[in-house]
Structures are given as structure tokens and as C-alpha cells.
Design a protein that fits this description.
Layout: H1 2-12, E1 17-19, H2 27-38, E2 46-48, H3 53-61
């Protein structure tokens, strides 16, 4: 649900959207991609990247990316309840 709260704001402001889902629960992301294709959203507006820390590091260091919204755990070794 979180991407759905951020995505409309991003594209309404004229931006593209890149979603990097958790490796553990990426199935919902595939459903979102099918919905975006079904509503004929232009190519390149909604993007999905899969990966681990190298992917995240790339996203964080790419100068073309002007804003990032992060939801989740920032330390995979931190298992607090």
C-alpha cells in the first residue's frame, strides 16, 4: 500500500517512479506492474528494479534521482521486535 500512497504524487508532479521492493515480498509489485500496463501508463513512468544492497547503493548515489522515499528496515542484521 505504501507505493500507492507515494506513486500518484510523484507522477502528478511530472516525475517518473522507481520502485525497489523487498526481495522477500516482491509479488505485489508484479501485480502493480500488470495494473500499470493495463491502464496504459506510458513506458518509463512506473519502473521496478530488483536487487539487494548494490542496487540500493546505486539508487542512493545516482545524481539523476532527486528524491527517495524509504519504508522499511535499514539494517538487515537488526531484528528488533
Amino acid at each position: 500500500m505504501v507505493p500507492l500512497s507515494v506513486f500518484p504524487l510523484a507522477i502528478t508532479a511530472g516525475n517518473t517512479f522507481v520502485l525497489k521492493p523487498s526481495e522477500k515480498v516482491s509479488g505485489v509489485t508484479n501485480i502493480l506492474a500488470r495494473i500499470m500496463n493495463k491502464i496504459k501508463l506510458p513506458n518509463g513512468v512506473f519502473n521496478i528494479v530488483q536487487g539487494h544492497m548494490k542496487t540500493v547503493d546505486y539508487i542512493l548515489s545516482d545524481d539523476r534521482i532527486k528524491a527517495i522515499s524509504f519504508i522499511g528496515q535499514d539494517d538487515p542484521d537488526d531484528h528488533q521486535t
